[in-house]
Structures are given as structure tokens and as C-alpha cells.
Amino acid sequence: MSSNEVILELKDLKTWFKVEAGTLKAVNGVDLTIHKGETLGLVGESGCGKSTLGRTIMRLYKPDGGQVLYKGKDIWKYKKPEIKTFRKEVQMIFQDPYASLDPLNIVHDVVEEGMKIHKLYPEKEAREKRILELLNMVGLNQEHEYRFPHEFSGGQRQRVGIARALSVEPELIVCDEPISALDVSIQAQVVNLLKDLQKKLGLSYLFITHDLSMVKYISDRIAVMYLGGIVELAESQELFDHTMHPYTKALMSAIPIADPDVEQKRRRILLSGDVPSPVNLEAGCAFCKRCGQAKDKCRKERPKLTQVRPGHFVACHFAGE
């Protein structure tokens, strides 16, 4: 259950990279908040900057502008002890369960490492007991404890990754496409596990994905990202009931509907043209070249994320028209 307390706030966040052709603006002026106990879904197509945003929150990339405020304090102004506390309280579940686990470490060592670094459960006996508790919590058992990652399926490896994140008792977890590398039959199990753990431990999540139907199921609020910026933000049900941004509408139209009669009658919104390059972005709305409603103003002036309904924000000059 989410509260009004803000655990993480992004203010005009920019993460840019110098490339041969110029400046790649992967994250370009993002404002977001995550409340304690909330799941904020971040959705958008590949290359829009979702993972870069997640890694900037984790201090893996240094921003070129703006702020990342954790519990009200800028994470780039931390002193050494504060960085260690931040590393403990904010964890990440990575996209690829095959690449994110050390192939030479058994599961016991993978889960134990964070506890040793942060001096949790200093007694060996208490630590062993806790490791087993964590494995049981994520749907694994004692016989898995002394196996190597290559002995597990993708879903089991991702469970090990979740146990590793939980081992240091975090408050916020950045889930970077945690189900995209898994079989469809396993995806729902992992998402249900994350929901159960949130309820049990009071966790907050940033859930990054390109799967709109899954993000609706797990998220309290959803932010839609396009070419480095947030184009729409609302509560999950509100976003699906009153979609306003042309890009979000196109994404929604691509979600399959189980009823064949409804599926046959509905109109799919097909976007023309390719996604513009995030290198040396032109002035104006980043989406205007693919938008059927674009006007002169869109080409000249970048729209700001503005509230158009209670709690519903849209970056479009003509939202709701």
C-alpha cells in the first residue's frame, strides 16, 4: 500500500553521452516521484532511455543535469558513509538473469556477499539461517543453495537475483525489465512474486518494461517515456481509461485483446516513420514527426508535462482535443 511519503524524486534529470555524431540525450529533462510502498511503472519502446534512467538512479551513470533526490537528499552530494547506506537501501534487479550472476559463485555466496559487505547478520549461523529464509521467500529451497547459476532455468536465476537484492533489506528496488528475458509462462510467476514481496516487506519499485499489459497489472502509476522524456503520467487505471498522448494511444492499440470479435473491430494506430535519433535532437516535440495531429507549434516548441486531469499529466500541446 503506497503512502504520500516521497522516497525518490527526479528533478529535470539529464543523462547525456558524447558520441561521434554529437550528444546523445538518453534522458532529457525527466521529473518523476516514487512514493513509499508504491510501484511506478516506466514503459516505452527500446532505446527510449528507460534503462539509462534506472542506472542513473543507481549512481551507475552520473547525470549531466538535474537531481536525483533519495529521501530528500541529492545522491551526488553524499559522503562515503551515505553512499554505503544508499547502496544498501536501493537495489536493482537486472534484465538478463544469465549475465547478472557470477558463473563461478554458488547461490549461497551470491546471496551472502551483500550481507558481509553491509555487516548484516555478523554471526555465521544467523547468516546461514537468513540465506535459507530468503531462498524460501523467492520460491527456492535448501537444495538450490550450493548450485551454480548454469544449473538453473532463467526463471530460477531471476529468483536468485531477487533474493540477492533482498539480502541487504532494501527500501527501493529498480526492476530493469526483470521479466523480458523469461518465457511467457514464467513471467506472471515472477511478477506475482514481486507483488507478494512488496506487500510483505513494504518495498517500493520502479518497474521498467516495454510490456503495457504487465505494467498495468503491477503498477500503481505509469509513466510513458519517449526519446528521453516523459510524455504521459497517470494512475494505472486512469491511463488506460483516458489515454491522451498520441504516442500512448498508439502503444495501447497494439495490446492484443483476448476476445476475437473485439480484436477484429478495433482500429490499430500505426505510426509512420522511424524513431528520430536521440543525437542532436531538434527543437519542438520529439514525437511530432510520427504524430498525425502535429501542428506548427509542435515543431517549434517542446511541450511541458502538464496536469490535464487530476493526477494525469501529459506532454502535448493539444492533449484532450
For the structure shown, list the relevant keywords.
321 residues, 8-stranded mixed β-sheet, globular
What does this structure look like?
With 321 residues, the chain is of the alpha/beta class. Helix content is 33%, strand content 24%. The chain has 11 helices and 12 strands. It has an 8-stranded mixed β-sheet with strand order 6-7-8-3-9-10-12-11, with helices on both faces. The protein has a 4-stranded antiparallel β-sheet with strand order 2-1-4-5, covered by helices on one side. α6 links the parallel β7 and β8. α3 (107-117) packs across α4, α3 runs parallel beside α5 (154-166) and α4 crosses α5 (154-166). The protein is globular. The model has no long low-confidence stretch (mean pLDDT 92).
What is this entry, summarized?
This protein is α/β, with parallel strands linked by helices and 321 residues long.
Major sheet: 8 strands, mixed
How much helicity do the residues have?
25-40%
Mean pLDDT: 92
Low-confidence runs of at least 5 consecutive residues: none
C-alpha termini separation:
34 Å
Structural class: alpha/beta
